[in-house]
Amino acid sequence: MAKITAHLTISLDGYVAGPDQSLENPMGTGGAMAMHAWHLGSSDPVDLAMAGVVMAPRGAYVMGRNMFGPVRGGWGDSDWTGWWGDEPPYHAPVFVLTHHEHDPIELTGTTFHFVTDFDSALEQAVAAAGDDTVTIAGGASAVRQGLERGVVDELLLSRAAVSLGAGESPFAGLQLTPTRVEVQVSPNATHEVYRF
User: Fold this and answer.
1) Cys staple from 38: which of 26, 32, 47, 126, with CB 3.0 to 4.6 Å?
2) What Cα–Cα distance (Å) separates residue 91 from each residue in 20, 47, 57, 70?
């Protein structure tokens, strides 16, 4: 069966996105974009190594709708195809969690499938991945659902020296006892790997 991983960049106070996410502020307000300095232009070897792990090829992905884009509620006549333009970095099937059905979107090397419940999304991702890794790519709600169900084998956290004060928390209400197996530090983030 596929290995299931999750990766999040997280603030010191435990948020992966700030409040008021929008097209203009995809990560929310309050310095949320600063959390991602470790992989948005950093040349630090520790950051580059973690970016290499996070962006390594996967068999399939699961992600939340907020991570896919800023459209909320029904899709209406939206022609949104994701934050990444015509060539997303995934190059594998991506199963997007949403409360509103949508036809698949095929882009260069990536097809986004829209699924209305986590269990179905994960089941489809595992089937698509075969023996390859499935990554729950975020956001907070998607990763939390994986942790609640006990399906995450490995969690990669990049903890940035930014405090957001509010936002989306992947760990709210959870009691977890993973084993920390790796810690690497750069000026931009502390990169931690946990196994369950």
Assistant:
1) 47
2) 29, 22, 8, 22
Higher pLDDT, 21 or 90: 90
Query: Is domain 4-15+27-70+86-195 in CATH 3.40.430.10, yes or no?
Result: yes
Tokens of 71: 């459209």
- What is the tens place of the pLDDT at every residue in 14-59? 999 888 877 788 778 877 778 999 998 899 999 999 999 999 999 9
The whole-angstrom separation of Cα 97 and Cα 76 is 17
Whole-prediction pTM: 0.93
Handedness of CA 153, 8, 40, 24 (dihedral sign): positive
Q: Which residue has the tokens 């595992």?
A: 126
User: Which ranges in 2-139 belong to alpha helices (H)?
Assistant: 45-54, 65-68, 118-129
